[in-house]
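User: I'm designing a mutation panel for AP-5 complex subunit sigma-1 and want to avoid disrupting the core. Could you give me a predicted structure to guide residue selection? Please restate the sequence first so the numbering is unambiguous.

Assistant: Good idea. Sequence first, for numbering, then the predicted structure tokens:
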Amino acid sequence: MVRCFLIHTVCPVSALGPGESRVLYSRVFGPDESIVSEQNRGLNPEERRLLQKEKVAVVARQVRSAVSLSREASGRPLVETVPGEEALALQEADSGVVRLRAGDPFNEEMSALWLGVQSLGFTLVCESYENLLLAEGTLRNLTRHCLEHLHMLGQGSEVLLRSSRVDTLLSRLLPHGQLLFLNHRFAQSLEKEVAAYMAK
């Protein structure tokens, strides 16, 4: 099962200090760990929400660090693409996996698959037993739809204002946090359905 999906910054942003990452969108699936775990059971809803927000921020910082290390190691210059070149940007994207140890930040060990597309990071946090190849395909598909239909690479792109569209994408491509095995015909019908909704 996928525990969460997030979109965040992976490059320095003027409003942030070095090493910081801003979470632009996050969606958590599955049961709330703070209700299940003994030590956090007494927290009120606001405290639970803040704890969840901090866990997502920890993942974003770890992925940001992995992206910057990957980019430094590759030595390739970061090429800015313009709206309309989303496919090229996705093809040039850095990618990888970060292992999240138990307790840092989730109770169980997790895997965070990430794609670094220019200044944006797209991350899928999966439980350790999950099929990582299937998760990578789903992450690339989600990222492609976000870039193409929501025009996230343009100047002044407001991911926060388009969160309902990202929610709809997730409900179609990652229902309730479950990775889907798609045959060719079902994948095509899903593509048409998503394209029709995004064109509204």
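For picking mutation sites, this is relevant: Residues 45-74 form the longest helix (30 residues). The chain has a mean pLDDT of 83.
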